[in-house]
Amino acid sequence: MDSIGLCHAVKGKTIAQLLAVGHELLSSEGIDPAWVPFTEAERAEAESRSA
Amino acid sequence: MTEADLRRADTTVRLAWGQVPAAHSELLKEIGASQWQVVNEPLGPVVDALLRSGGHPGLSRAAQAAMVDAVAVWIVQLRLMVLDAGHESLEGLDDRSYDESVATTAWHEWAHALSIELCSREDVAAGPRLLELAPEGIREVIRGAGYHPKQYTHELVANVYALLMYRRRRNLSERPEWLNEEIYELVMRVTGWTA
Asked: From the list A12, A20, A50, which residue is nearest B87 (CB)?
């Protein structure tokens, strides 16, 4: 999937593959590839900004 | 998907936006690409309706059907990213994996928006050559997705930027060893990335 008209769509499968590649590349650097989750404090602040 | 789930997804996009360095978010604002919408519907009909309500031609049924696998769309005419928070590719993920996927999707689409606006014709023409310089995994993702060679540069920028943002979550912003210098310089020039 690429451009449809002037829209650019990205497949969910492509993102999943990209994340798998990202995990491999991070591991190759000796970095733990586990996602660093957004903290509850970050989430609360983001929610307050959107309220 | 509940309303609470939808709000969580929207907050995750907002958090991903908050992670974008100020210089990049300013660039995105300059090109009018700082807006997003999170929905829980297939994107084809949503994009069609948004285009029509914005006074643009809608999507054909074929184009809508072609979006069935899409988790997000960057609509150039409306300067809007739309994400399907309930897409089947996100089903069954735990919160951590869900946030990872949604944030990565947002970073990918924002970088794509910058790439479309700011890459030169020469950059676009160099796509097939640059793709050969990319890490094997990224090369396979782009080739496997069936993109036209004219899209290679934009896809490279989008994918590399998303992974650089992923690293930034660990306070790593310099060029990783696995990334070719020419591609890194392209991403810096187009997105404003700085180490």
From this structure: A12
